[in-house]
Please model this.
Amino acid sequence: MDEGPPKVARRFRGSFHQKVDSKGRVSIPASFRRVIEVGDPDWTDGLRPNLVIVYGLDSQKRLDCYTLNAIEDIEDRIDLMQPGSPERETLELTFHGHAADAQIDEDGRIVLPQRLRDKLELDPNEAAFFIAKGDHFQIWKEDTFKAVKSSRTEVFLADQAPDFDARIHLPPRPSSAVGTEADLLRDTLSRRR
Model:
């Protein structure tokens, strides 16, 4: 029985260390490239897939990388906001003004311009840290990631039970008539407290 071609992941998963060379070239992890290809509506075999790098405000020491489909969804949602509102202007500045298009080359790499390497505070030939966030991925200097994320995580986990299961924080499925396993788990754990 032919099951057809293998299913391609549509979400980013995993974490990777990738060396950045002196010209700013860095390999995108292979599994991430597959997601970027699927998320580029114009990509076909033989073409180079495109993505958007959001470098954000100066205080953000990371790069958020989105597929074209994911960034289009964000832009569509921004368009629904009240024109001129501070929230919309902040999102427009972040996702339009502080963003750059990127294309993966034939060797699976993108080029991080010097200003983006400076933002990350990456030293020459240092490895960048790639971390999946589901619908996008981030690029960090690993030491910065550890300092920022581990402190937030430690504070959060300090308030959790020893047998904490993160699934209790999943929202219920919007159209679910029957409780999901996560819903049942959340109910069970909330009764223990």
